[in-house]
Amino acid sequence: xxxxxxxxxxxxxxxxxxxxxxxxxxxxxxxxxxxxxxxxxxxxxxxxxxxxxxxxxxxxxxxxxxxxxxxxxxxxxxxxxxxxxxxxxxxxxxxxxxxxxxxxxxxxxxxxxxxxxxxxxxxxxxxxxxxxxxxxxxxxxxxxxxxxxxxx
Length: 152
Fold this sequence. Notes:
Elements: H1 20-24, H2 27-42, H3 45-48, H4 56-69, H5 75-80, H6 85-88, H7 96-112, H8 117-133
Helix pairs in contact: 2-4, 2-7, 7-8
């Protein structure tokens, strides 16, 4: 009797991971994180000086952006068009130190929201390069504010 060698079984197809926004708790967590972040900015005179006096609009935009960036609804782009974050930050003179402080406060706000360590590391891995991409001090860039301009 001849036996046919068995074919190795294929591992099950990987289950697609849920979007990061869902893994950390959704929109409510983003709202908590951004509110906490802005409280930290308020307590940091050096970083606060870079932000506009009226931080209400920026806070809302930050919530929309973070939700979208973490895989949620594209509420930011629906309202303001393409994020073009670097261009939108030209009015603010951002140096490496400010980028680092921003990243520290945002990381601390996410950590305070008690999200999982894996998710936190994933978020910080994306936010680090993003924060340092905003550095524009010493560059000849247009400094006029864009306000709520829709960019394409």
